[in-house]
Amino acid sequence: LGLATIDIIGQRMRPANFLETGGAITADLLYKVMELVLQKEGVRAVFINIYGGINPIHEGAEGVIRYMREHNITLPIVAKALGNHQEETWEIFRKNGVKVVTDVSTEKAVAQLFQLLEGER
Predict the structure, then answer these.
(1) Cα separation of 93 and 62, whole Å?
(2) Which of 13, 26, 52, 78 gives 84 a disulfide partner, CB atoms 3.0 to 4.6 angstroms apart?
(3) What is an example of a GO molecular function annotated in this UniProt entry (predicted)?
(4) Nearest 5°: phi and psi at 66?
(5) CATH number at residue 45
(6) Neighbours of 73 (CB within 10 A)
(7) Taking a C-beta distance cutoff of 8 angstroms, is the pair 47, 109 a contact?
(8) Is the CB of residue 112 less than 8 Å from the CB of residue 99?
(9) Which of 27, 30, 117, 112 lies closest to 75 in space, CA to CA?
């Protein structure tokens, strides 16, 4: 999932970071992920691609949103989140301004990221 996502993004942009969380998605883990990813200067957007087989991905979404709120993050964020508690995850993201892609296609999700960034110009 992760390396394929980097390859797709890399067709048109230079990814600033590749971060694979592994299992055990929690709010605290995704909060720390956001902290780590956004430390790098020049990050223009965040693309989240998570799959929850047994992982409750809505908890991860809560960590992302908590970080966004506490640090006043306004850059574009696109999330493709599928699996355990996906509808709840989509709602959490949508309510907080994150562009949600419900399609299984990572290519389509990344296309949404490109559109958001091109709209900034």
Answers:
(1) 8
(2) 52
(3) nucleotide binding
(4) -60, -45
(5) 3.40.50.261
(6) 17
(7) yes
(8) yes
(9) 117
Please report whether residue 17 resides in a domain: yes
The parent domain of residue 53 ranges over: 2-115
Half-sphere exposure of 24 (CA within 13 A, CB side): 2
Domain count, the chain: 1
Residue 34 lies in a domain: yes
Pair 5, 110: CB distance under 8 Å: yes
* Beta carbons within 8 Å of 54's beta carbon, 6+ residues apart: 23, 84
Phi, psi of 103 (to 5 degrees): -75, 150
- The pTM score is 0.88
Task: Decide if 121 is inside a domain.
Answer: no
In a domain, 49, yes or no: yes
Q: What is the DSSP letter of 41?
A: T
Q: Which helix (H) or strand (E) covers residue 77, if one does?
A: strand 77-83
Q: Which run of H or of E encompasses 42?
A: none
Per the listing, tokens 């110009």 go with 121
70 token code pair: 């506490």
